[in-house]
Structures are given as structure tokens and as C-alpha cells.
Amino acid sequence: MRILIIDDEPELRRQIASSLRQERYTVETAGDGDEALERIFSEPYDLLILDIMLPVRDGFAILGQLRDEGIATPVLMLTARGEVENRVKGLDLGADDYLHKPFSMAELLARIRALLRRSHEQANPSLTIGAICLNTSTRQVTLGGESVSLTPKEFSLLEFLLYNRNRAISRFNMAEHVWGDAFDPFTMSNNIDVHIKNLRKKLDDQAGRIIVTVRGIGYMASDDQA
Amino acid sequence: MKIRTRIAFWVSLAGLASSVVLSLLVFFWGLETPYEFLDQELEIRAHAVLDELTRQVGDRGGIADGDLERFSHLYWVRIHDSRQQLVFASAMAKEIEMPQRPEGSGYLVATDIPLNRFYPEEDDENAAFWNRVFRLTVAGAEYRVHVARPVESLVGESIEMATLIGSALLVSALTLIAVSFFVAGRILRPIRKINRMAAEITENTLEQRIPLTGNGDEIDELAATLNEMFDRLQHSFRGQKEFIANASHELKTPITLLRLSMEEILQDEQLPPPLQEKLLAQERALSRISQLVKSLLDLSRLELTGQLDRQTFSLAALLLSVVEDFQPLMAERRLTFTSDAPAEAILHADREKIRRVLINLLDNAIRYNLPDGEIACRLEQQAGQISLTMRNTGPGIGREDQARIFEQFFRCERSRATEHGGAGLGLTIVRRIVELHGGRITVHSEPGGSTEVEIVLPDHPAPVPT
What we know:
The complex is a heterodimer.
Chain A: E1 2-6, H1 10-22, E2 26-30, H2 33-42, E3 47-51, H3 59-68, E4 75-80, H4 84-93, E5 97-101, H5 105-119, E6 126-129, E7 132-135, E8 140-143, E9 146-148, H6 152-163, E10 169-170, H7 171-179, H8 185-202, E11 211-214, E12 218-221
Parallel strand pairs in A: 1-2, 1-3, 3-4, 4-5
Antiparallel strand pairs in A: 6-7, 7-8, 8-9, 10-12, 11-12
Helix pairs in contact in A: 2-3, 6-7, 6-8, 7-8
Chain B: H1 3-60, H2 65-71, E1 76-81, E2 86-89, H3 91-95, E3 107-114, E4 126-138, E5 141-152, H4 154-200, H5 218-266, H6 273-304, E6 310-314, H7 315-332, E7 336-340, E8 346-350, H8 351-367, E9 374-382, E10 385-392, H9 399-402, H10 414-420, H11 426-436, E11 440-445, E12 451-458
Parallel strand pairs in B: 7-9
Antiparallel strand pairs in B: 1-2, 1-5, 3-4, 4-5, 6-8, 9-10, 10-12, 11-12
């Protein structure tokens, strides 16, 4: 899952980014409103973490603009404690949740998980398909109750496929969400087949009934295996 | 010839020429003056002796040699009357013969009589005589008076004077050259400074300006003019960069919308296969455009702001994590990766940007490699710098292409570009990031052999925690 952090405080940006990376999210950052909008309008993100207090173009302006353009990416606002008005204003403008500063990393991570689930209409923290179960909170994958060890990228790939179950996802799209914009998605989309092969092996899906190959397009996590 | 040498040369030459003219004037004046004094002295003496003579003739009707001798002591005097009769000859004139010339200017007669015969305090050089002949009239009677006096030879004196003036000229010439060279250097120093500053201002440091001294001289005017030129340059460069940034930005939204709808259409399983084929080809082309625009935007972001978000991290660890991401791809292509990183290589730099550098380099090393090839990475930490070398078994880069690989949109062998993908901006981005960190990047490649990319980053000191 690909997350953009918008905050003008480099140290906070760095800390959040490194915690999220440990949780195997793909993280990008923006230090000001202009850069943030530029990225939001052109890159597919799964979640935005938006600080309201930004110089020049504040969080409300960013929020207003992206909702006006019809971009529905979930937004988690960061506000200073006690600013009830700001919170209300943000939620009215289309923010999905808010968090006071200072906050604990555990709470931030929990809210991110909840928002991602909500945006993909998942009530359960576990994404289950067949015998495979991916727990978004513990970041664990089990196959028939047995724990499976996945590399960070394999985990991210599976998570992305499961959140978008029953949708054919192109290799290019997967590459963008799993590796972010530092990597060339062309190179990485070649990488995807290798990862899928490894995933299928680890998940005992040799026949490709869970992760289905969609000819010409890419892959799909399919519910309707035989 | 350098301006400094030229100024020194011409100033010295002009100074020397005027000194020579002045010295010659002094020299000749110095030669003439003693004779003018002698002329006057002889004229006074001639009158005095003749006056005494006529007085004696008038008083006593005869000449008392003794008295006249007193008047003509140390002079050579002969007086003739109008009938060419010798009226008087001084003691010296009785012994020594002097050639007589017509009256007029004085003349010098050399003798072999030692000078100290007349002036005991002088040495024994040969005396010369300065002669003058006057035609004087006293109480109606006309006389010719020939007067001379021994003088020391002025040849020695003039040689002495010439040597003195010559050495003075030499000293002044040397002083002139030294002073004018020094002064020219002083005058030209601001120009050298301007030159150095102008050389330092490159495409990436256009915001720098030459400092003005504010004294309004020509050099200040030059600096001000240059600064105005840099203003215009910077403005046009900025305009160009902003245009690329804006154009890319404006392109991204429609491309994204197009891609989303394309993906949506492709979800339809009922699509007739020929249509699906065409749509897939379109999607690939669109993805390529999208990637190109994204890289352009990244590059112009780097060009415009160039801000670094420095933190301290281990380059070796970062390299390891990037390699991990490429591992499956390398395994698929049966590439062998070896890494030689003896040190942690702690760096204080923009981690995300350096990560981008490693990703782009490794991407290239994989993309342009032979099947079953190798990639070797070496990290070295030396005093003040960290160098990273990435070598692959290549097929190598042609000589003419090597100079151009950092250019935007340049790809070796255009035909292979479609096969390998990429926008041709990867190395341009890498170089820009390395330059932002004050480092440098070089490529060594043998056509048909291996390709080696080397990056050297200065060891930027971490800030002291306060």
C-alpha cells in the first residue's frame, strides 16, 4: 500500500516514514502543499497523511482541492490538540479521520489500518482468501493456520492484491503501489512475475487459483476458486 | 601577452624614454656650463688686464710688467696693438705657445704640461687651456687680447657624469618595471576576481552574483553589467525549467484519468480479443508516457529546488536494501551480484535521493547487461569521501556515446530503447543528485567489454547536536 506523508517538519516526516516502512508500506513524502498536490494528482496513493499547519498552502486548501477534483483517496489529518474548529472544518472538507499532535506511533498505525480497510470496504482486520489469511494489524500471513514467512515485497504485493480482490491489476499498477516512484515501474513490472511465482509457491497456489493470471493484463486475487 | 605584462611594458618604456631625454639634457647642459663660466671669467680678465695696461700707459707712459703680472697671474695673456705689435705677454705666455684663432667663442687646446705646475694641489694630468680672443677698444686704440687659462681635462669628468647618469637610468628602469608590474597587478586584481567568480557561476549556481565594491570605477561597472547578464540568464533558465515543470504537471492529470479509465475497461472479461490487444498496447504506451512525464517532473523538481534533506545513514545498508528489491529480477536473468563493502560507509546526505541514485544505477546495470552476466559493486571510504563503483559485464558503451549518456533522453542504440524501456532520464537524474551533494560521477566503459560507473561523494560532516 502506498502512502504519502505531507508535513513541513522534516524530522516528523522522517520518523513517520521510517515507522511505516517497517510496516511494509511504500512511503513517499512531501514537504509543502505544492509538491503534495503535484504528487496527489499524478500518482496513485492508497492513503494520505496530511498536516493541517503547512506554510503557504495549508492542509485545508489541499484537501478542498483534491476533493473538488474528485480524488477519493482516504486522508488522515494531523492537527494540534484542542483545535475543535479545525477538526470539524477538516472533516467537513472530506478528511476521513484525524489525529492530535503529539500522537503515538501505535495509534497512527492503527488508524492507517482502519482507514485502508474502510476504503476497501473491509470490516475485518484480516484479509482472507481461501486458506490464506493476511492480518493487517499483526502483518502476519497464515496458510491454513500455519504461519508463512514472506519477504516485505511479497507481503506488500499480496496485501495490495487482497485489498483489490476480484479486480485485475496490471503489473505496472502493482509496481507503482508496491515499489513507489523511486523505482522504474517498467523494470519492476518484470520483477512482478518473479514475485508472484514465489508467492504462489509459498502459498501452495501452484495451480494459480487464488492469484489468477489475467491474460494480457496482470493478476487478480480471486474469490471464486473452484 | 597578458595585459599585466603589457601595462608594465608600456609604462616602463614611456618612463624610461622620458628619463633618457631628461638625462641627455642634463648631461649636455653639464658639459656646456663650465665653459660658459670660463668664457665669462676670461672676458672679465681680458678687460681687467687691458684696463690696467692702458691706465699704466696713460699714467706713466710705459708698462710695468710686474704689476700687470699680478693681474694676469695664472693666466695666459698676450695683447697685441692694432699694428700687430706684442704689447704684453704674461709669464705663462712667454713660455708656452698657444695657437691663435679668430676672435669669437672659446676653444680648448690640449698640452702635455702637467696641471700641478699651475695648481700644486692638483694631480699630474695634462693641462688643457681654454682660449678666447677679444678685440677690444680702449681710448680709441684697438687691441687684440688673447687670454687662456689652464683647466683640467673635462673628458674624465664627462665620463664620470655619463656613468652616473647611466647607472641612475638603470636603477630607475628597474624600479619602473617593478612598480608598474606591481601596480598593474593591483589594478587587475578585481578583474581576476570577476573572472574567477564568473567561471564559478554555472547553470546550477545562477543565483550567485559578483560582489560590487561600490566605488563606481570601470571594473565595478563591468561587474554590474555581468550581474545584469546573469539576471537575464537566470530568468530565462528559470522560465525554461518552470515551463517543463508546469507542462509535466498539466500532463499528469489527464494521463492519470486516461489510465484509470483504460484499466476499468480492461476489467471487462467480455472484451473481444482483438480489441483487448489494442487496448493493452495503448495501456503500455500510456504507461510509458506517464513514466516519462514523472521522470521529467522529478528532474525539474531537482533542478528548481535542489533542496537536500540530510540525515545520517549507512550507505552499505541502503545498498543492501536496494539490492534486495532487485534480487528476484537478477535471479530471473541469472545475473550474479557481488558486493565489496568493507565499511559501513556512514554518510550524511539526503537518504531518499541517494536511494534513487542506487536504484537507477542498479536498474541500468541490470537492464543493460548480458544474460548470465555479473554486477560487481564496491564501496570505499577514504579520507573525506566515499566512493561507490558499480561494474557490469555490459555489452559496453561506444566511445562517442560515453560522453552523452548523462544527457537528457539519450539512450545508447535507439532501437534497443523500446526493448529495454526507460525514458533516458535515469542517469541525468543520478548526476543531478550527485552534483547536489557536491560529488562527481564518471563512467568507464570498453565497447564490447564491461561498464563501470563510479560515484564519489564528499563526506559531509554531520551537524553537531545542540
